Amino acid sequence: MRKGILVDKKDEKLVDFAKLWLAHDGLWFQAIEKKYGIEEAIELDKQAWSMFSPIEAKRIMARLGMKPGGGIEALVKALGERLYEQINEQEVIEADDDHAIFMMKRCRVQDARQRKGMASFPCKDVGLVEYTEFARAIDPRIETKCITCPPDDYNGEYWCMWEFSIDGK
C-alpha cells in the first residue's frame, strides 16, 4: 500500500497477484482440456487441488500462528485468508463450534463465463477435493459436504455452498 493513499480493505497488489494466479490456473486447465478433453482436465485438476489445498491451508495457519486441530473456528478464519477471498465474494452464513455453511456469492470464473454467454464451469468435483483437503489440513475431524455447485443450476444469489462439520453434526 502506498503511503498516504487510502485503498479498499484489499491490497491492490495482492488482488493483482490473486488475479494472475487464477489466470494461470485457468490457462493451465484450458491447455489440458484442449489436448485431452474436459474429463481428463477435470481429473488432473482434482489431482492438482488435492496437493495445493493442504499447502495453502498450512501456509495460512503458519502465517496466523494457528496449530492443526483448531476446529470450525480455525477453518472459518483460514477461508477468509485464501487467495480466492481477494477476488471473489464469499461469506460464512452460519457457524458454531461444530458446523459452518460457506457460500461463494460472486465467483470470478463463473461470472466471466456468464458474461460471455458460456455455460457454467462444472467445478463441483474439483471443489469437493479442494474444500475437503483444505478443511482436513486445518483439522482432520472436519467433514465437507457440497450443498450446491455447478453443474448445479445457478440461483442468481450464489454459485456454490459448502457445509463443514465435525462428527457429522
Describe the fold and architecture.
The chain is α+β, with helices and mostly antiparallel strands and 169 residues long. The chain has helices at 12-36, 38-64, 71-79, 83-87, 108-115, 124-138, and strands at residues 89-96, 99-106, 142-148, 160-166. Strands 1-2-4-3 form a 4-stranded antiparallel sheet. A hairpin with a 2-residue loop joins strand 1 and strand 2. Helix 1 (12-36) runs antiparallel to helix 2. It is globular. Residues 1-7 have low confidence and may be disordered.
* CATH homolog superfamily: Trafficking protein particle complex subunit 3
Distance between the termini: 42 Å
Q: What is the CATH class?
A: Alpha Beta
Shape: globular
CATH architecture: 2-Layer Sandwich
Adjacency order of strands in the biggest sheet: 1-2-4-3
Sequence stretches where pLDDT stays below 50 over 5 or more residues: 1-7
Tell me the fraction of residues in β-strands, as a range: 15-25%
Query: Which value, in Å, is the CA radius of gyration?
Result: 16 Å
The main β sheet shows up as: 4 strands, antiparallel
- The number of E-state strands comes to 4
Supply the helix-strand structural class: alpha+beta
SS summary, helix count: 6
Tell me the quaternary state: single chain
What's the SSE pattern? Answer: HHHHEEHHEE
Helix coverage percent of residues?
40-55%
Q: What average pLDDT do the residues reach? A: 91
What is the name of the CATH topology? Answer: Muramoyl-pentapeptide Carboxypeptidase, domain 2
Tally of separate domains: 1
